[in-house]
């Protein structure tokens, strides 16, 4: 990935979801990553309100566990959620902190893939590595939220001591 980005900070620039999706799509068509401030709590704790997320052009193949930016079919809004299942019918997508899936979407509604999450000037690794497959599996079965909060209370102090939640910026 190149070091050039197009960045939109939603605190200084407010843009409607479909307009932002259109801008993001145009930027990604030029193979330039698009960064913006994530609003909301639907992906907590892996992506938190105010985190900076980087969206890259789609890879050749998407898989369960990948976090993608897409046009949500139910509300026609730009949404960033995790793919929890892939089939010939499309991609089942769900927010990690949501009780229900967004539904199945086709590849044509997916704009890009999340490749980086930054929280407080630090890159967040948890949720983007190999563990994303387990997260998707748990989420699809609606077990992620209950399991996540129990495990999180145990893991968070350990990870803070060992600095496994974040790494230095760039």
Would you kindly provide a brief summary of this structure?
The protein has helices spanning 17-29, 131-140, 144-162; strands spanning 6-8, 34-37, 52-56, 67-72, 77-87, 90-94, 103-105, 110-119, 122-124, 166-167. The chain has 170 residues and is an alpha+beta fold. The chain has one domain: Umud Fragment, subunit A (Ribbon), CATH 2.10.109.
How would you sum up this structure, described in words?
- With about 170 residues, the chain is of the alpha+beta class.
- It has one domain (about 5-165): Umud Fragment, subunit A, CATH 2.10.109.
- About 25% of the residues lie in helices and about 30% in strands.
- The chain is built from 3 helices and 10 strands; from the N terminus they run E-H-E-E-E-E-E-E-E-E-H-H-E.
- Strands 1, 2, 3, 4, 5, 6, 7, 8, 9 and 10 form a 10-stranded mixed sheet that branches.
- The radius of gyration is 15 Å and the shape is globular.
What are the key terms here?
ten-stranded mixed β-sheet, 31% strand, alpha+beta, Umud Fragment, subunit A
Secondary structure layout:
Layout: E1 6-8, H1 17-29, E2 34-37, E3 52-56, E4 67-72, E5 77-87, E6 90-94, E7 103-105, E8 110-119, E9 122-124, H2 131-140, H3 144-162, E10 166-167
Parallel strand pairs: 1-2
Antiparallel strand pairs: 2-3, 3-8, 4-5, 4-8, 5-6, 6-7, 8-9, 9-10
């Amino acid at each position: 990935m190149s070091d050039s980005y197009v960045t939109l900070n939603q605190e200084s620039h407010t843009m409607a979801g479909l307009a932002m999706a259109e801008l993001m799509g145009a930027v990604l068509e030029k193979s330039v990553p698009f960064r913006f401030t994530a609003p909301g709590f639907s992906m907590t704790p892996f992506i938190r309100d105010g985190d900076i997320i980087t969206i890259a052009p789609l890879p050749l193949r998407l898989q369960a566990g990948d976090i993608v930016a897409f046009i949500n079919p139910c509300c026609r809004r730009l949404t960033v959620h995790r793919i929890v299942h892939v089939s010939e019918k499309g991609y089942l997508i769900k927010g990690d902190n949501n009780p229900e899936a967004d539904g199945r979407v086709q590849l044509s509604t997916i704009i890009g893939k999340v490749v980086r999450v930054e929280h407080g000037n630090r890159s967040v690794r948890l949720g983007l590595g190999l563990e994303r497959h387990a997260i998707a599996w748990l989420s699809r079965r609606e077990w992620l939220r209950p399991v996540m909060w129990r495990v999180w209370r145990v893991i968070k102090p350990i990870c803070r001591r060992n600095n496994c939640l974040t790494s230095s910026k760039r």
